[in-house]
């Protein structure tokens, strides 16, 4: 998950109004506590000079790439500070580490470099969901254990739902007729919300046709973002009441409870009545019902929280990357005929039917998606928190309490890592290389790395490629400018473009 997924859901007005508060609070935090006080005693990473009190916050918010550019040359090699340095962002010490330390990042255990603590700190998991979920990380545990085993079944559900969701907005077009969609991100978020609901709760479940529940799946993240930004402003102990009074998180959680409690109760009852004859659905709800804690079944409340946490980490991230991919194709018309030829050739081998097996053969589409992930990644990606001083293999020690980000440009824009011309978009960069989009490594860190690498990446890649396959075959689509519009840098992250896309029915 990246900051992009969070910020994309806020309007600019919302971002800047909360951002102003965050900014002020960061300054206050800095003035009451000297942030880098214990770094003298270590061989600590160099601290990049910033403005008095606010440090590097302003630069990072307004143009993160420029800030990184002070430390990285055009080819993204660190020139002034090396690829390990510390910034003051929002009054907090943030250490950026690059390619030279990627092995340290991957190998260091969670008791020193914690993903959960960083996520808790940043995403306000405890304040949003309560400590039971944040102690257990049910959503991660179950996703890791079961998600990738059921891909064929999930693909079937997802293909059906995504086709229908795309038709909702574009299905009324006659062959040759055009329609401009202004807010592509909002459109894609709706499509992915529906597919995610079908995967997590089962396509046949009443939840998948419940307008309020689908609205919650689609919009929950937007409210969580407010909580995250409030978490940068107000003291920790006030966050639960701020969430209650200033966000719709309680309302969304209530909708989820109202929709899912009866489903959980019914499944438990059927299992009790039918015993082994009960044919268990394959979805998150059932995995959680079958799970246990200290020998006891999980409470319905915890199951709902786990599901909403999964919604939180998955829907916006997938919708954002689908939106990027759509702009990457729409803005580069020269590649469409090759993508389309592949679609036709593969589907001809599958009786014209899109299936998981057919998707697996669409190597050009997958190579294109992997390249889209590479070029659209934020410069600072994936985080950890140091629970104790963290010694790097180069001898530097990152103090306890620092948030650590990986400098993705040191890998993704590095010719030694990704091959020649890293600054250009080459959709066939990994074609015939046996490197699918889901294979993580230094040349593909969009899904993170090490033991926390995204367990939902197979689903994400599948959903994105299903949507692209359907759109490519049914529609011609292009941007108004005729080029790939630039991403919008806001608050240290790259938001998807805002340009409309014009769809014209092909068949
Ligand atoms: C294109 C879409 C997605 C992207 C780019 C993405 C990216 C990421 C990243 C970067 C992480 C952190 C990894 C690290 O820091 O090493 C992560 C974690 C996670 N992702 Fe995704 N993700 C996506 C979609 C999904 C989907 C669809 C699901 C579930 C169906 C999912 C479930 C999770 C979970 C549960 C974690 C936490 C893992 C843990 O606690 O160890 N993600 N994701």
Automatic annotation (TrEMBL):
Cofactor dependency: heme
Main location: membrane
Record flagged with keyword Protein biosynthesis: no
Subcellular location: Membrane
Record-level Gene Ontology MF annotations: heme binding; iron ion binding; monooxygenase activity; oxidoreductase activity, acting on paired donors, with incorporation or reduction of molecular oxygen
Record-linked Gene3D superfamilies: Cytochrome P450 (1.10.630.10)
Residues that, per the record, bind heme: 454
GO cellular component: membrane
Family: Belongs to the cytochrome P450 family.
Protein name: Cytochrome P450
Organism this protein belongs to: Jimgerdemannia flammicorona
Classification lineage: Eukaryota, Fungi, Fungi incertae sedis, Mucoromycota, Mucoromycotina
């Amino acid at each position: 998950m990246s900051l992009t997924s969070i910020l994309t859901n806020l309007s600019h007005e919302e971002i800047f109004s909360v951002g102003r508060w965050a900014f002020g609070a960061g300054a206050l935090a800095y003035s009451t506590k000297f942030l880098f006080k214990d770094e003298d005693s270590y061989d600590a990473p160099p601290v990049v000079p910033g403005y008095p009190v606010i440090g590097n916050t302003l630069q990072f918010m307004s143009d993160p790439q420029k800030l990184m550019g002070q430390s990285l040359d055009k080819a993204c090699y660190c020139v002034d500070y090396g690829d390990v340095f510390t910034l003051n962002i929002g009054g907090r010490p943030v250490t950026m580490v690059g390619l030279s330390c990627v092995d340290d990042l991957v190998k260091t255990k969670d008791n020193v470099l914690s993903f959960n603590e960083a996520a808790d700190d940043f995403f306000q998991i405890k304040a949003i969901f309560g400590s039971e979920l944040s102690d257990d990380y049910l959503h991660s545990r179950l996703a890791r254990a079961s998600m990738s085993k059921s891909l064929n079944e999930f693909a079937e559900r997802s293909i059906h739902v995504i086709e229908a969701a795309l038709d909702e907005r574009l299905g009324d077009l006659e062959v040759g007729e055009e329609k401009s969609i202004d807010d592509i991100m909002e459109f894609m978020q709706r499509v992915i919300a529906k597919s995610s609901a079908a995967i997590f709760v089962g396509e046949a479940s009443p939840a998948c046709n419940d307008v309020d529940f689908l609205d919650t799946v689609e919009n929950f993240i937007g409210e969580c973002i407010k909580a995250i930004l409030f978490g940068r402003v107000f003291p920790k102990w006030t966050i639960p009441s701020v969430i209650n009074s200033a966000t719709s998180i309680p309302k969304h959680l209530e909708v989820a409870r109202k929709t899912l409690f009866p489903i959980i109760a019914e499944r438990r009852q059927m299992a009790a009545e039918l015993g082994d004859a009960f044919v268990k659905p394959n979805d998150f709800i059932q995995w959680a019902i079958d799970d246990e804690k200290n020998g006891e079944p999980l409470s319905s409340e915890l199951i709902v929280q786990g599901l909403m946490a999964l919604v939180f980490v998955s829907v916006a991230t997938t919708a954002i990357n689908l939106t990027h991919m759509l702009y990457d194709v729409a803005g580069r018309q020269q590649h469409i005929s090759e993508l389309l030829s592949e679609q036709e050739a593969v589907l001809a081998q599958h009786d014209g039917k899109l299936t998981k097996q057919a998707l697996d053969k669409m190597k050009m589409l997958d190579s294109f998606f992997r390249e889209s992930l590479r070029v659209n990644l934020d410069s600072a990606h994936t985080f950890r928190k140091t629970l104790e001083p963290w010694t790097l293999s180069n001898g530097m020690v990152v103090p306890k309490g620092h948030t650590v980000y990986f400098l993705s440009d040191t890998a993704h824009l590095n010719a030694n890592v990704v091959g020649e011309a890293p600054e250009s978009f080459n959709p066939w960069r990994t074609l015939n290389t046996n490197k699918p989009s889901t294979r993580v490594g230094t040349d593909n860190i969009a899904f993170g790395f090490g033991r926390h690498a995204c367990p939902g990446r197979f689903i994400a890649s599948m959903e994105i490629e299903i949507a692209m396959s359907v759109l490519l075959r049914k529609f011609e689509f292009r941007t108004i400018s005729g080029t790939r519009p630039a991403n919008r840098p806001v608050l240290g992250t790259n938001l998807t473009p805002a340009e409309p896309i014009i769809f014209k029915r092909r068949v």
